[in-house]
Amino acid sequence: MQLRPVLVAVATLAISLPVGAQTPVSRSPLARPSKPGELSAPNGKIEVDVTTGELKVKGGAQFTHEGLVVQAESGSRSPKEATTKISGNVRADYEDMRVVTGEAFYDEKTGEFTADAFRLGRPPFYLSGDGVAGKRAEFHTRNVTVYAGEPDYLSPTIHADSAVVEGDKAKLKNATLRLGPVPLFWVPSYSLDSKNTAQHMKVNGGYKSRLGAFLQTETLIPVTPTFSAGPLVDIYSKRGFMVGPSLRVIDGTPDDDHYIISELKGGYIKDSKVPGPDVNGFAINDNRYFGEFQHRQKIRNNWSFTSSLNVWSDSDVLRDFHSDLYDNNAEPDNFLETNYWTDDMVLSGYAGFDPNNFGRVQERVPELGLDLLPNPAPNTDYFHAFSASYARLQQDAFTSINPAFPTNSPELGLNRFDVHYSLWRPFATSFGPITPVLGARLTRYDSQQNGLVSPQSYTRAMGEIGFDWRLPFSHTWDYSNRAWEITDLRHRVTPVVNYRWMPGGKNGNGQIVPMDNELPIAAVPTMDLSDIRYLDQLTDLHQIRFGVENLLETRDKEYGSRELVELNFYQDLRLSGSPNGNEFTSFYTEFRLHPARWVSFDVYNRIDTESLTAKETTAGLTFMDGDVWRLGLYGIAIDGRIAQYVADWNYQITQTWGVLGRWRFDGELNKLTRQTYGLRQRLSQTWGVQYRVFVNDKTSTREGELGFNLNFDFIGF
Asked: Is residue 182 helix, strand or coil?
């Protein structure tokens, strides 16, 4: 919102309402329209004093000018004094703003205006004050109150003796922050920027068997137009006090050429009842703390910085005291990353590190990369791409005495130089387009460390030979269904074949420290040499993938097409590198069902073809009815090690009340591990409240078996 146009409208209420030619006077362009406005009396009458030339409007006046509409009971203008006064229930509307005042006065000679008590609103801000006066681009108000959101009895407000408004910014004097009628704190001066200011208040309370009764608060108050700060204060009846800072910087928006958002929060507690050992079996110190820092920045439109820093005293500090933060960050990641890009190139820098000591973390200190993006090769019909990188990878020695997973791993490390080049060209044939692929990758390993053994330096060269083939078919049906918003149907069927032979991959096995290893992912794995990340544990991949891709879509009523159903099947055949020779290895299924905007169903599955056992499965089913209700069912199962299923339900009973439920089931334990039941209440225009009861499995040693939670949340300004 722009504050200046809001207050300009107050001045414009009293703009000259000419009925004849006047001698031009020097006036502020903000207070004087470029063209005369139109004065009318829809429900009243216009009188002219022939002696003084004064114009009077009574019984209902209306003034319009370039989108501004002003209505009042009466108005008058004196040509001799070059002043205009409009009064009586004055109401001004301009775009999404409304101003209400009793009387306004404008002096054409000086370009100054004044108005008595006023109220104005333009989301998200609402202001009221005893008076406003201004000249040119600067406006002064007295005894002003700024509301966050629509005014009500619980709205946070800022009350000031006076305020000076320039453009989008306001400077307040003797400002007091209030919650409804209750003053919270006072500052001698305060700056407000309607574009960038952000205030956040969060209050969370309840009872947990391991914490006792507790109250958690976090407050952010704008200090400057781009910087907000406040305290994080928690009280736990069984554990003590946790205190720390909460800071936020927001400058610009993601669409701007320059943009910054940084957030820092943390807390410290002298734990009066230290729980049992941490996840590794070691004792936890009573001095417990956590700190989190997130930063995103864009410089121009082609340079970005991102960083994340998480410092914990032990592996369970967030799980014990702030489970909401722990659920989103159970394994903290710490890194610095920068990227610079052009249309053809990306330069990148990355540093991953571990300031904590309770887990095995691979550190990349640093990793530098240059990627030349796919482009036509000069004077040919071929396309090519190139990448080069350097990385220092290291992993500290780590020990865990937890009997469930004892660990004693040595220190690992290496320097890795990696270069890759690929060349390809699509060919159109009567059997569909085919794209031969050639590639090479050269990797150099130095300064390797593996416990007490220091392997020698090693250079590995790999090749890539293959092709990608696709044969698309499609058929269209003239079919319509208003209930499902379907207008015509098109079915696309595409058989695909991908072939890759990568000789040289197993070279160096036993001589290369395995730092980057293959990990399970819920997606069909890549076959391109350039995209393989597990460089340190390769084989001579010789593989062919057969697949069929299906897509059913309809016309979108707004633009293009809308995908209704997608069903893809892929089968991998290992031609060499398998102990049994040629072997069918994995069968993949991808299924996405989005027949309407209120339902979606997504499934991914990988089956080991030889044993016919599911190795990886993820699924999600969602039903929704606008903002009224939502039901989500989600699950993930990985190779007999993980089997987690979640049901999430929300229902809005009225505009004020809603209910919620969440259930988590562990397939390995064959039991419900956590149940949550709650009510949501909209307490006012600016506050939301959640009342939640949660029940944990009896084996939960960290969070307790039963708990109650009361959460107040406000976001405004």
From this structure: strand
User: Which residue from 384, 345, 375 is spatially nearest to 530, judged by alpha carbons?
Assistant: 384
User: pTM of this prediction?
Assistant: 0.77
Query: In this structure, what are the phi and psi dihedrals at residue 95, rounded to the nearest 5 degrees?
Result: 55, -120
User: Which of 397-433 are b and which e, b meaning 16 or more Cβ less than 10 Å from the residue's Cβ?
Assistant: ebebeeeeeeeeeeebbbebebebbbbbbeeeeeebe
Q: What is Dmax (Cα atoms) for the chain? A: 113
Between the alpha carbon of residue 54 and those of residues 47, 103, 169, the distances in Å are 8, 18, 38
Measured CA distances, 243 to 17, 199, 318, 509 (Å)? 60, 19, 14, 51
Cα 187 to Cα 157: distance, rounded to the nearest angstrom: 14
Which helix (H) or strand (E) covers residue 646, if one does?
A: strand 642-652
> From CA 579, how far away is CA 577, in angstroms rounded?
7
Closest alpha carbon to 235 in 212, 258, 255 = 212
CB 504 within 8 A of CB 459: no
Cβ-based neighbours of 58, under 8 Å, separated by 6 or more: 41, 44, 45, 47, 73, 74
CA distance 329 to 319: 10
Task: Give pairs for 244-251: CB < 8 Å, separation 24+.
Answer: 244/268, 244/289, 244/291, 246/218, 246/219, 246/220, 247/220, 248/198, 248/200, 248/220, 250/196, 250/198, 250/226, 251/196, 251/226
DSSP states along 404-469: TS-EEEPPEEEEEEEEEEEEE--B--TT--EEEEEEEEEEEEEEEEETTB-PPPEEEEEEEEEEEE
Are the C-beta atoms of 100 and 119 separated by less than 8 Å?
yes
Read off the pLDDT of residues 40-66 as tens digits, 9 standing for 90 and up: 777 777 777 777 777 778 888 777 766
pLDDT digits (tens, 9 = 90+) for 191-223: 776 655 556 778 888 888 888 888 998 888 777
Per-residue model confidence as pLDDT tens digits over 460-470: 999 999 999 99
Please choose, from the candidates 309, 393, 387, 301, the residue with its C-alpha nearest in 3D space to the C-alpha of residue 348.
387
The answer to whether the beta carbons of residues 174 and 158 sit under 8 Å apart is no
pLDDT band at 341 (very low <50, low <70, confident <90, very high): very high
CB within 8 A of 273, min separation 6: which ones? 238, 239
Give the 3-state secondary structure of residue 253: coil
Over the stretch 446-464, which tens digit does the pLDDT of each residue have? 988 886 556 678 999 999 9
Low-confidence winner among 1-10, 243-252, 434-443, 571-580 (lowest mean pLDDT): 1-10
CA 706/CA 45 separation, integer angstroms: 73
What are the tokens at 381? 């019909």
Distances in Å between the Cα of 521 and the Cα atoms of 253, 526, 541, 664 are: 33, 11, 19, 22
Cα dihedral 112→118→120→125 (10° resolution): 100
Query: How many Å separate Cα 418 from the centre of its chain?
Result: 33
Neighbours of 379 (CB within 10 A): 6
